[in-house]
Amino acid sequence: MSVRRVLPTRRGHTVIALAHAGRKYHIGFGQECDKAGVVIKPEVLEFFADARHTGTDFEAFLHDACIAMSLLVQHGCSSEMQVAAYGEHRNEGQERGAASSIMGVIARMGVEIEKG
Question: pTM of the full predicted structure?
Answer without folding.
Answer: 0.86
